Amino acid sequence: MAHELNRHTFDAVMVPNYAPGAVIPVRGEGSHIWDQDGRSYIDFAGGIAVNSLGHCHPELVKVLTDQANKLWHLSNVWTNEPALKLAQQLCQMTFADKVYFANSGAEANEAALKLARRYAVDKYSADKHQIIAFDNAFHGRTFFTVSVGGQPKYSEGFGPVPEGISHLPFNDIQALEKAISHHTCAVIMEPIQGEAGILPADPDFIRRARELCNQYNALLIFDEIQTGVGRTGELYAYMRTGVKPDILTTAKALGGGFPIGAMLCTDEVAQAMVVGTHGSTYGGNPLGCRIASRVLELVNDRDLLDGVRERHLMFMDGLDELNDRHHLFSDIRGHGLLIGCQLNDQWQGQARDLLVHAQDAGVMVLIAGPNVLRFAPSLIIPPDDIHTGLERLGQAMVQFLHTRTEEA
């Protein structure tokens, strides 16, 4: 069936920085999505770890509708009740004393990095500006965050990058010990590197990073854009490490699908961001904050978080069983409902092809680089949907192997 708006429309009117597939979803409910032709899919992608409570959760729809009939936007000349409540919740639920609201993860990280440098300059000296980040990290697509991210393909072609940024091997304690100094203002890391292929930070690495930051008066920044808001079975992944950061960034799942981000920090660090230092036109708008507030109320529940861990085991058992049959993966890893399947040597570079076969079989998955299939479904995905989705993934794996056999 031909549709007036289709994949060709994208090519005609959209900047070609994305390469979406031909399927255009038009409706979602829970962990199910329907396309323009009425075909249904099990959603194991979750909008890249965004739809934390699935599609069109009735509580979020109710809150959005209620707030939409009250107040959508205010400039930051004033504040608003939903923003104050959300900031209060985040402080009560985490290590943080203060909160800054943005619209996205990249903007939250931009604020965090600017704050780290401003704090170091104000308290120490202008020479204390080095930011230590890690290879293959991803922190956003603004010019500053893409420069701090450890994937050159995203920063190349835009001219000189900001100075004072060092990239080290992830999980390499010796490299960090050698690189950090009194010129370092911050160390930024993801507790689990997402875009790099779902690579968890070693507990010893995280602890040593905290010790070194304390020793050299540097700030420890946790980028929890992808791991936050229940994704790992704790409200934030740092809570399972025994280490507290000085700054934490959160977005994606925070709004359950509505765009919102936040930077959380200690009171001491926050004092460097004085009036006029930074800002955002839409950051902290009443509509986004009201929705995020309800997301936190629903997610920060021990039964729900324990359910994430239970669903993790369902996924791992199911993926192990599929791999025993089809032998596609060399490693299956992750925490909670952020899981990566590393393709073995025979199938390197073909993760996207497997994604396409999965879509054809009726299950939506993600990739994390060319060699890793990624799963980031709703935190409350029903067990029946897990089983059905994995059955469809198994069909996709069979078709993937069949196609490769024919090509050979």
Automatic annotation (TrEMBL):
Subcellular location: Cytoplasm
EC number(s) from the headed UniProt entry: 2.6.1.11
Residues found modified as N6-(pyridoxal phosphate)lysine: 252
Domain of life: Bacteria
UniProt catalytic activity: N(2)-acetyl-L-ornithine + 2-oxoglutarate = N-acetyl-L-glutamate 5-semialdehyde + L-glutamate
Any one of the GO CC terms: cytoplasm
GO biological process, one term: L-arginine biosynthetic process
InterPro entries assigned: Ac/SucOrn_transaminase_bac (IPR017652), AcOrn/SuccOrn_fam (IPR004636), Aminotrans_3 (IPR005814), Aminotrans_3_PPA_site (IPR049704), Class-III_PLP-dep_AT (IPR050103), PyrdxlP-dep_Trfase (IPR015424), PyrdxlP-dep_Trfase_major (IPR015421), PyrdxlP-dep_Trfase_small (IPR015422)
Pfam family, one: Aminotran_3
GO terms, molecular function: identical protein binding; N2-acetyl-L-ornithine:2-oxoglutarate 5-aminotransferase activity; pyridoxal phosphate binding
SUPFAM superfamilies xref list: PLP-dependent transferases (SSF53383)
Coiled coil segments of this chain: none
Binding sites annotated in the UniProt record for N(2)-acetyl-L-ornithine: 141, 280
Annotated pyridoxal 5'-phosphate binding sites: 105-106, 138, 223-226, 281
Oligomeric and partner information: Homodimer.
NCBIfam families named in the record: arg_catab_astC (TIGR03246), argD (TIGR00707), PRK01278.1 (NF002325), PRK05093.1 (NF003468), PRK12381.1 (NF009047)
Misc. comment: May also have succinyldiaminopimelate aminotransferase activity, thus carrying out the corresponding step in lysine biosynthesis.
Identification of the protein by name: Acetylornithine aminotransferase
Organism placement in taxonomy: Bacteria, Pseudomonadati, Pseudomonadota, Gammaproteobacteria, Oceanospirillales
GN (gene name): argD
